[in-house]
Each structure stands twice: as C-alpha cells, then as structure tokens.
Amino acid sequence: MALLGRLGALLQRAVETEEPRLDLPAAFTDHWKGITQYYLETTDENKPAKETDIPWRLKQMLDILAYEEKKQPSGETGPCLEYLLQHKILETLSTLAKAEYPTGMRSHVLLFFSRLLGQMQCPLLHYLNVYRPVQKLLHLGNDALGSEPEKEMMQLIAALCTKIKQDPALLPYVLEGKNVASGQKLDQAFQPQGATAEPALDPVEQDRRLCPEEASCEVRLVEPASSAPNLVTSLISLCKSKKRKVALKAQENLLLLTSIDHQAAALALARDSRLCPLVADHLCTLCDAIPATVNPADVTTLQPVSWRLQGSCIEENAFPGQASLEAFFAWLDLCDCLVKEAHPVVAGAVSETVAQRFFQGVLQSQLLQMSERGILLSTAVLTALVRHIRSPALLQELVGFVLGTKEEPAVPKDSGHQPQHHLCSQLIERCNHLSDEISMATLRLFEELLWLPDQRIMQHLVLDHLEERSYLLRSPPGQEESLAREQEPCEDGLELEEDPYFIDGFPGTSFQVSTKPGVPAPKQQAQPEDVKEVVSSFLCLVPSEAKTSAYLEEAGYDTYVHDASVLPYAVNLQVTSVLSRLALFPHPHLHEYLLDPYLPLAPGCRTLFSVLIRVIGDLMQRIHRIPNFPTNLLLVRRGLMGLVPAEEQQIGHRTLLEGVVVLEEFCKELAAIVFVKSMREVPA
Length: 684
Known about the structure:
The chain is mostly helical and about 675 residues long. The chain is built from 30 helices and no strands. Belongs to the FHIP family. This is Family with sequence similarity 160 member B2.
C-alpha cells in the first residue's frame, strides 16, 4: 500500500509539473510562422487551400487562444492574444482573404474570424487591430463571393450580431469604427497587458452627446456619408441570397440586430448605416420585377406569404408571375416584422423611408397611370398592402399615403376647390369609373381601408363631410322640435310617414359630436316602436313582386349574410358591401344619414334611403317590360346561389335581374343593421 501511495504521489507531481512545460506562446508562434512560410516557399500556385496545412494551423491557433483564456486570470490578456494583436495577424489574414490565395483561403479566414469572436469571452471588437480587419472582411461583400463563401460570411455576421446583442455599444465600432460616446474615429492600438479600454458611457449620456439638444430626438433621414460595405450592407446582401438557408439566417440576424433595446445603437442603425434605404430600395426592386401581365385577380387571391416560408415549396399549378409576387410580399412581410419588433427609432426611420421611396416613389406613379390594366394591377397591390401590413408605424405611413397628410377632407366641399392630395381624389372618383373592373377594385380597396383601426380613415373620408350636417333642412331657432314632427317630402316628391327616430352615441365610440346653431341635435335613444318602423321601412322598400328570397328559404336577418357568402354579384355587391360597412360604424351623424328613412333633407341633398327609393322606382318601371319576370328572377337567384348550373340558364336581362336580387338582400341587410345597432342601445 505504501508503494502504491508513493507511485500515486509521483504521478500527481508529474502531472502538475508537466502542464507548465506546455509552451503555448511558442506553439502559437510556430503555427503562424508555418502559415507565412507557406507563402515564401510554395511553388504550386494552383493548389487549393484545403490541400495545404493552413486550415489545420488556423484551427490549432484557435484552440490555443481558447485554452489560454480559460487558464488566464479574469480581466487579463494572455501572451498569445497579445502576439495576435501586436503582430496584426488579423490584418494579414484579412488581406490574404481578399487576395483569395491560395484558392479557398477566403472561406478559411472567414471561419477563423467567426470562431475567434464566438469562442473568446473577452471583448475584442473594441481593439483597432480587430474591428478594422473585421470591416475589411465585410467590405468583401461587394466582391463576387460565389456560392461557396456565403455560408462562412453568414457565420461571421451571426457571430458579430450575437456580440452586439450582448454589448450594443459595439455596434458603432462595427459600422464605421467610431466611438459611440464621442463619435470620433478610434485611434486605439493594442493596449498592454492589464490595460483596459475606455469604459463605455451609459445610454443616457451617449444620447446626450449624440443629440445634445434632446436625448430622444427624431431621426433625420439623410443618406449616410459613407456607402462602403459594412455589417448592415453585407447582412442585407445575404438576405437576398438564392440559398434559402443563408437568406433565412441573414433575415433572422437582421431582425435580431434591429430589435436591440439600446438608444445609441438604434440611432447608429437609423442614421449612420444604409439600413433604411437598402430595405426600402429592395422592396421597390421587387415591385418593379412583378410582370405587367400578372392577372390582378391572382394578386387578390394570393395567400399570405411569410418571409420564413417563402420559396419553401413550389406549387405545380403556379400562375404566371407567382414567384415574383411571392418574393415581393415575402420582403414586405420581413419589413413589417422588422418595423413591428425593432427599436422605435429604427421602426420610425424604416417606415418613413419605405413611405418615401416605395409608396411615393414607385407605387403612386403606378396608381396614377392611364392604362386600365396597370391601374387594376397597382390597385390590387395596394389593397394587398392594406390587408397584409400590421405594424403600427408602417400602417400609419400607408394610411397617410392613401389619404394625404393635409387636414382637409379628401373630397372638395364645393366645385371650385381642388383637393391637395391628388391620389385620394383620384381613387374616390374611380369608385364610379366607366370600367366596372376599376370600380370594383377601388371599392374593394376602400372596404379594406375601412376595416383598419385608424380613426383618420373614417374621419377623412366620411365624417369630415357630415360634421356640419348640411344635409338637414335648416329651421329658424326655436322650431327644431316641431320640424322633426312635420311631414317632409323627399326629393322625388314621395311622401314619407312621420318618424322622429334619430340615434346618437354608441357604446365605445370615441368620436366627438358637434351641433351647429339652427340644426336639431340627434336624439339620445330610439324607442322600440321607432326601431320597428325603421326596420319595416327598409324591408318594404322592394315590392313583393320583386322579392324571391322567401321562395327558397326562410326570410330573416341572416338571409343576406348567407347569400352574400356564396354569390359573385360584381359591382353591385361590392357597393353594398362598402355601404354596409359604413352603416355599421357607430357614429350618430353617419347613422342618421344612412339609416334614418324620415330625415328632413335640405334642398338638393340625398340620403341612402332617398336614393334607394329612386332606384326602386326606376326598377319597377323597367321590370314590367321583362317577359316572365317572376319566373326568370327566381331562376337568376337560384343560379347565383349555385343551385342551377349557369349553362342551363338562357335568360335575357340577366344584369338587371341580378341587380334586383342584390337590392333585395341589401335592404334586408340594412334592416338587420338597424335592428342590431338598436339592441346595443337597450340597457342590460
């Protein structure tokens, strides 16, 4: 036992004395000299790097640096790392990578840098002899890398983004090599062992120096002075890679970089990099790449495209131009996610740049063109943007683009005043275009806009024009109450029975209602008997001889909803859809204008009810000239509902008969809306 104990002690002392004998600096130096010696002695210039000992020596150098750091006291720099920095090894390697000699050297250098930054725990990017060669490698992004080094470049950028996420103050070093605190170029060579870099300032102090007048200043969108490739340009370039895995990894790191919760880093991204113009310009490029021959209906029916899944599967029955459309909407989805998740400074800057360069610079000219096919395609694209964008900042820019930034209403109040926002006025005029297709596309656009949670839309398009309630018949002061009880003729000369129904205020509405002198204020709540009369007024608009729904199913308020979900009613259905959406909106002025059949109207004014009366009067004169009108009307309804094959129907006056069906269902829908809105007013 004593002998075994002595042998164990001897072995332990041997292990303890053997470890210090490992000369790490000498081994590290030998490996580096072996690499440089290759360039002095090689005679075969065609031999690729992977067939030399360079990759092995680079890996040995990495292992030595990692091992040295583990054994080194915290906060101190080991001799191998000192040698790496003092002899500018990274500078030399970046030069060899640029020369791409021997062939494939660039990939091995990129791999060495990414592993060095990923494995070392001590901060390295603060050193001039580290971040400068890193920038030199990033500058290679403009070179023709080919498909082989893309993966290694992405690994380097991912390592940089991870380090920046851990220490956001590093971002300005990587972008331009500037001190985040003072904004001056760093002239900091390697510091001796034990020396530490100048401590970074806290974010508040950084913001004050970056923007002395106000720490939370707005970002001015100016083109960065330097257009040299850097982290952002290289990252976005890889986002466009044809290799799906590389592009996906790049897009994930782009979102990681822009979501860093650090004011100074966000300002550096928004002001000192080309992030905003690069993101917006690529969206413009992809939009321009959409073929003009794409069917607008394909844009409308295109399923939502996710940037994560774009290009993951190829459909066999793809329509012409589908790949271009999906590429555009995938990048749009990436922009939307970026703005939603990014720091508010970055989100605002990207949104504003997209509005300037894409909405105004590209899309506006396409929307205002004269070609009917071009108008249909651009309107379909705009409608898809309204439907797909969900980030508040970008959605706000989109709504501002469509409506205009001015405070004035979109439609002129008198014929002598021209609206300042030409696009919005053009879109409104197209709702009643000579081309039914353009009318439908534009109405579909406004219907999508009305669903957005932005108060400016209803205010600008509708409520501004109802604010003064100029559609009401004015009365002298003191006669407002008697006016509501008087029987007033509508513009068609038809007498409407008395009904004092007005409705005011709906739960949850945030709009302020103002009344003008001489204008009767809407009453606070409708009585049940008033609601019943209004509902009956809309249900009885269409004469019984023009009704067909009762022959196919039970009549009720849900009939229209069922029918509307299966019938393709073209323009008429689109018009009624928009009007129904407006009628549902909880604002008293809009409610009385659209849903009060007995509103006393000012001369020359029309309401929805008075227009419906005129339309039905004209309809009744025309249907008497149609042979077998009831039978043919029922056949048309059955055909629209899919109960009768279209090829079996040989019916004249089809458009008029379809219009009768739509009108009947629309009146039922309005009656249902009045009833549902009145139920909200009944106390629980």
